[in-house]
Amino acid sequence: MEVPKDLTSYVRVLKLASTPSTEEFSQVSLVAGAGIMLVGFLGFVIFVIMTFMPGGI
Fold first, then answer.
1. Dihedral (C-alpha) 41, 45, 48, 52: value to the nearest 10 degrees?
2. What are the sequence ranges of the domains in the chain?
3. Could you tell me the pTM of the whole model?
């Protein structure tokens, strides 16, 4: 494993990276928020099912 070769690849990736536009950032955060809400809702549904039907699942 050569350190200089690894460092040049990291620098190349950092040069290609750019900050997202406001529209792109808001779209990504909206999708991530929707995913978090979906996982939370599924957890809540499982909690309710297990509370009212302890031996159901």
1. 170
2. 25-57
3. 0.62
